[in-house]
Amino acid sequence: MLFLFIPLVLTLFLKYPFGVLPSFAVAVAIMFGHRLIARPFFFRNSSKRCFWCGSTKHSRNTLEVMSGEKVRMQLCVHRCYDRAKKFFDFCFRYRIPLRIGIFITLLWYVITMILNDFGIMQFPVEWNRFLFQFVIALTVVTISFAYTSGHRMDQPVFPFPIHNLFLIGARNTLLVFRYVGFWWLAASFYFLWVRFRS
Questions:
Q1: Residue 16, H or E segment
Q2: CB 154 within 8 Å of CB 82
Q3: Alpha-carbon distance 96 to 107, whole Å?
């Protein structure tokens, strides 16, 4: 249930059902409020199931990861343990382009949409939505495939909020990002095709 707040926030940003400013205000409030619930949930349950796959059935190893502070998590022996280490290494090594692809893109979208709403800046909304979806989709789809190129870090560091990945398991979160990313990429290419065709 906690994971559903993520698509809710994206819907508020992309559809802004209450208008741009009210919808964005609600989305930002949910983002910060969600952290206050999801992070304690992670710490409370991190020893009960695998961080990577979410399973409670298999034997597990404990792994300490530095993510703002040192956090301890459980990972299924062998496959999940190794894949998680590769994922942490990939995200740490490419943290700058990943931050640009996700956070800077989100910041650009929010600021320009608000400026448009106030009439301070004129940037076509449909192109703004295209940039937002295309860049973020390209980023998350790349992560979902390329993380396996990472190395098994002895002392993993994760430079992003780690609690959201635990909600349905990091592996399942990456799969959701991959499928939604493909959908957004398809929508982006269709948008370009329609625009340049006309």
A1: none
A2: no
A3: 15
Residue type, 61: N
Cβ atoms within 10 Å, residue 23: 18
72 SS3 class: strand
Give the whole-angstrom CA distance, residue 13 versus residue 80: 33
Phi, psi of 62 (to 5 degrees): -95, 135
Distance CA 58, CA 40 (A): 24
- Domain range summary for the chain, segments of one domain joined by +: 2-197
Handedness of CA 48, 50, 51, 55 (dihedral sign): negative
DSSP string over 90-128: HHHHTHHHHHIIIIIHHHHHHHHHHHHHHTS----HHHH
Written as one letter, the residue type at 31 is M
The H-or-E segment that residue 131 falls in is helix 125-146
pTM above 0.85, yes or no: yes
pLDDT, tens only, 129-153: 999 999 999 999 999 999 999 998 8
Q: Which residues contact 49 (CB under 8 A, 6 or more apart)?
A: 55, 56, 74, 169
Cβ 132 vs Cβ 109: under 8 Å: yes
For residue 29 the two structure tokens come to 């409030």
For 29, how many CA atoms within 13 A lie in the half-sphere containing its CB? 7
